[in-house]
From TrEMBL:
Enzyme class, UniProt record, top EC level: oxidoreductase
PANTHER family hit by this protein: MANNITOL DEHYDROGENASE 2-RELATED, MANNITOL DEHYDROGENASE DSF1-RELATED
Domain spans labelled Mannitol dehydrogenase C-terminal: 294-479
Mannitol dehydrogenase N-terminal domain location: 37-285
Molecular function in Gene Ontology: oxidoreductase activity, acting on the CH-OH group of donors, NAD or NADP as acceptor
InterPro entries linked: 6-PGluconate_DH-like_C_sf, 6PGD_dom2, Mannitol_DH, Mannitol_DH/Oxidoreductase, Mannitol_DH_C, Mannitol_DH_N, NAD(P)-bd_dom_sf
Taxonomy of the source species: Bacteria, Pseudomonadati, Pseudomonadota, Alphaproteobacteria, Rhodobacterales
Matching Pfam families: Mannitol_dh (PF01232), Mannitol_dh_C (PF08125)
The protein's name: Mannitol dehydrogenase family protein
Length: 499
């Protein structure tokens, strides 16, 4: 695409769509006739580059015009995102970064954004509208109030306690959903589908657990009604979508568009959804999504190889001051670490899925991680390891111990995370806090330098792995070596081990 001067920029809006450069695709449907059918909570880049794109693609075919998205957020910071999107009529420029070329498309499937209020009254009213048939969420893996040790519902969290005592003025997205469902039950308008789009194994079941358990704290009869009538489909979502920063803003401007919140993304997308919708759904399968009765094998492969793989390479890259995921993959040792751990310690516990054999999937993920056009920062990917390691990596460790397959590489990955949480890179620079539990993790990581067993005694993350000698001994060996000889030398020692 041609680079354009600042004076040629087109401010993104409904009125200026026809003025956009010819090589930028834009909605061919009349946005003024769209009506809402979906509320989506968590209007970050991923949703706009993934689920919103699938719906937009349907609308381009003349379909699903009564399923438009109304955005929502429950955090104070979401108000700024609402203002940015409202100023451009809720349009988003998606920029696909293929290694060979750049293409751009304006997505118009979102038509509104609920005002962000402390009481969430506007959000509750919007979800109570019978026209809303699906409520989706992308609120990060750590946002579902799960007890890390038991995997059950954390009823003691202050936010949950607030919503249990004051269900009409909730502070959580889940409390707002319950309040809206209560109004719908009273009005006889029926429930909506609750659709989780976060990277959690069995994400629909986890969302059901959170919503029903919270409702039960204040209204057991309502909890039973939700559990028996609402639906919570499991799903697997996949597309690498970096955060938007100065480079992305400069890129969209170079294409001739003044967009305050563009989204860059890779060209690969996948969405596998359990076909369980209590109030209807768009025909997303007509634009590439997969509806199935069993999402588990798809999500296991993606979560363990892609999301787990992200943690394998990002923690090492952080210690070695490598700024991007593609930069990590350009490092021969980190790339080899990913390939060996994924092939020997993760794949033995995965099944093939239609159209994809596990070894081919590792090769695909390696190629996607290596796309230098995707400027996905190591820091972003390494964020919230205290949720991502238990969710993405530790299940493979547990399977390996149970089945007698290797776990040495996964022990090394956990040792690298422990070393990263000490907060100092190998060049002496500081790693800024990068986890909701950083204040607890950092001092413990520093103590674990002399006593590695302390790290594994974090039962809420590791369960009983501290008592598993095969894993605990390997972890202690690798952590000691990392501190003594460095990350690269330790990775090379693992790679040289042919066992």
């Amino acid at each position: 695409m041609n680079t354009r001067q600042e004076t040629d920029l087109v401010k993104l809006s409904n009125q200026t769509l026809a003025e956009l450069p010819e090589d930028i695709l834009r909605p061919t449907y009349d946005r003024t006739v769209l009506t809402p059918g979906i509320v989506h909570i968590g209007l970050g880049n991923f949703h706009r580059g993934h689920q919103a794109w699938y719906l937009h693609s349907l609308m381009q075919k003349g379909l699903a015009h009564d399923w438009a998205i109304v955005g929502a957020g429950v955090r104070a910071g979401d108000a700024a995102q609402r203002e940015r999107l409202a100023a451009q009529d809720f349009l988003t420029t998606l920029i696909a970064l293929d290694p060979a070329k750049t293409t751009a498309e304006v997505v118009g499937s979102m038509i509104d954004f609920v005002p962000v209020e402390e009481s969430n009254a506007a959000l509750i009213a919007q979800m109570a509208d019978p026209a809303i048939r699906i409520v989706g969420l992308t609120v990060t893996e750590s946002g579902y109030y799960i007890d890390p040790a038991t995997k059950g519902f954390n009823a003691e969290h202050p936010d949950i306690q607030h919503d249990a005592k004051k269900p009409d003025t909730p502070v959580t997205a889940f409390g707002a959903m319950i309040a809206a469902l209560k109004q719908r039950r009273a009005a006889g308008s029926g429930p909506f589908t609750c659709m989780c789009c976060d990277n959690l194994q069995g994400n629909g079941a986890i969302l059901r657990q959170t919503v029903v358990s919270l409702a039960r704290l204040s209204d057991p009869y309502l909890a039973d009604w939700i559990n028996n009538n609402a639906s919570f489909p499991n799903s697997m979502v996949d597309c690498i979508v970096p955060a938007t920063g100065p480079n992305e803003l400069a890129l969209v401007r170079s294409l001739g568009v003044d967009d305050a919140c563009p989204v860059t993304h890779e060209t690969f997308r996948q969405w596998v959804i359990e076909d369980d919708f209590c109030a209807g759904r768009p025909d997303w399968d007509l634009v590439g999504a997969t509806f199935t009765a069993d999402v588990h094998d798809f999500e296991a492969m993606k979560i363990r190889v892609l999301n787990g793989g992200h943690q394998i390479i990002a923690n090492a890259g952080e210690l070695l001051s490598i700024e991007t995921i593609a930069g990590c993959m350009a490092n021969d040792d980190i790339r080899a670490l990913f390939k060996k751990v994924a092939s020997e310690e993760i794949l033995p516990h995965l099944k093939a899925v239609p159209g994809m054999e596990p070894h081919a999937y590792v090769d695909l993920i390696s190629q996607r991680f290596s796309n230098a056009r995707i400027v996905d920062t190591t820091r972003r990917v390494a964020f919230d390891g205290s949720s991502r390691h238990p969710g993405f990596l530790i299940p493979s460790i547990q399977d390996g111990l149970a089945k007698g397959t290797p776990v040495d590489g996964l022990a090394l990955v956990e040792a690298i995370w422990a070393r990263m949480c000490a907060g100092i890179r190998e060049d002496g620079s500081e790693i800024a806090p990068n986890d909701p539990n950083w204040d607890a993790l950092q001092p413990l990581a520093q103590e674990a330098r002399e006593n590695p067993a302390l790290w594994l005694k974090q039962v809420k993350y590791y369960g009983t792995l501290a008592d598993q000698a095969r894993f605990a001994d390997a972890f202690a060996k690798w952590l000691g070596m990392i501190w003594a000889e460095g990350t690269t030398a330790t990775i090379c020692a693992y790679l040289a081990d042919a066992s």
